[in-house]
Amino acid sequence: MVTEKRKTFVAREDLLRTISEIARENGKSLYETVNEIFESAILFQKTGLKMDKALEDCGKMRAAREAGYILCLENLWSEINEVAYSASRADASSAWRNAGLWFGKKHVAGQPDGCLASMKKELESSLWNVSEFSMKWDAQGERVEIDVIAPRFSRNQSELFASFFEGMLSAIGLCVNHRESGCGFIRVVGRRQAEQKRGDAIEKP
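-> structure tokens emitted (205 positions)
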């Protein structure tokens, strides 16, 4: 019979206090909880994953689920959009524009003083199949410029995403005065309207 050897280690008091609370909440001993933590750390190391990165990814997935995203095969998603676009270009574009309106209004309601930064953060987390994404104010602070490079996007997919961005910018009161898209690229520019030049409706750059 192999005797289990134990060793004493030193840890910060605040960490031990928190681990003790976690153990109590889960109905386990401090010994069991500490060993589970060590086992998890070893497993992450063996699989080549960084714990902080894994936690960040889990947080993104949870936030995406709560925001209404679903998982779907990329080729299936692309084919569905192609079919919809071919059946009715106007209806498909309208649906994507409405989705952009909803997206923009959600962020305005949640963070009225930082809606652009909030939208940019969510888009950076959710646009997995793009190689470049940029959303920023111009030097004069009058226009929001969105640029996307996505080599796997067809011309039709790029057009639909352009409709989404147009709706998104319209939701926060910007007037879209430039829009272009093609195979693998999108550019949409929204300009402040007259009343927004006084700092109304959206945050200043």
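Strands lie at 132-137, 143-149, 175-182, 185-191.
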